[in-house]
Amino acid sequence: MGLAGGVPLLWLASTPARAAGRGQAAARLTSVGTARTSGANVNGQLGTGSPSGRLTFGSVTPSPQLVEVAGGREHALALDTSGQVLAWGDNAKGQVGVGSRVDRTTLTVVAGLPVAVTVACGHYHSAAVLADGTVRTWGMNLRGQLGDGSTTNRLSPVAVPGLTNVVMVRGGADMTVALLADGTLRTWGLGSEGQLGNGGLASSRVPVKVAGLTDVVDMAGGRDHFVAVRSDGTVWAWGRNKSGSLGDGTKVNRSTPVRCGTLTGAVQVAAGADHSLARLADGSVWAWGESGRGQTGTGSKMDRTTPVRVTGVPAAKAIGCGRDHALVCTNAGELWGWGMNDFGQLGDGSTTTRLSPVKASVTGTPAMAHGGRNYSVVLAT
Question: What is the mean pLDDT of residues 237-248?
Fold first, then answer.
């Protein structure tokens, strides 16, 4: 607990969802800061009120005190110190949650939501876990990714029926995953490549249980795959595996979780379109999957089907991915990144794609980082 701008953060520790949290899910939101963005801005995803993109990280408008940020394809979400959800960027499918399809170029309150404890983005949809452990979703729903039993796009938040005791939620392109307080996972949405992890290839408009995976403490959504960390530090993944994003040494899709190499000691995972990252307790970062644009940070464009350590980056305290890039917040208070950089999403002042880690230009101390298709958003204290 603490104070931010005079607003007590009691809700972070005292709500049922937070009190029931597990590991990383319960401990993530401990920093208070403001959002910084870099990259393309065609749909207002930088949150500046201007259509101009930029090559280094700068502030958003307005700039409230926040505890979390999340990035979708071309929209973003944030959670402020009172549990209020803010959104901006592309709104063609209602993913900003303001009751219309008009893009928002500045941070806008998502109306009608009770106090939230964490937020997440898919490509064109959004989700929030409320203080009572239930979930609200909005935006695109063609594949049932909102979990409300329909395929109707929603311009405002709707409830996911029958889902309780949720402590974390994450989005993929057209699917969503929720972590329950008991350490099990529920998924819904597109399932044609095994994304739901229940052993089948059918899509689902309502939550289904991920098979055989327990004691989960963190998870992340890629375009068509999910990655999860168990309390024993092992990493597991399922879904599309065309480029090795599951890390099991093959390029075979998996409809139930498989272990990512022999990694142990993991505490956090992140996922891009077809690549994945893991942060270990010792601060090292490991990557696998597609690397045609340098997404694995190994200095080459060769895909990696098992985890490989990323060298040249200082010890990490948080990791994140965009579609084809990766971001690391370091213990030294810096932000590093690699991969696709055609719009300046790495924030290093250039548009040069990087096969190895480079340091970004950002004011403040980065505590959390996420990316979209061609932009990045960080929480800096």
Answer: 99
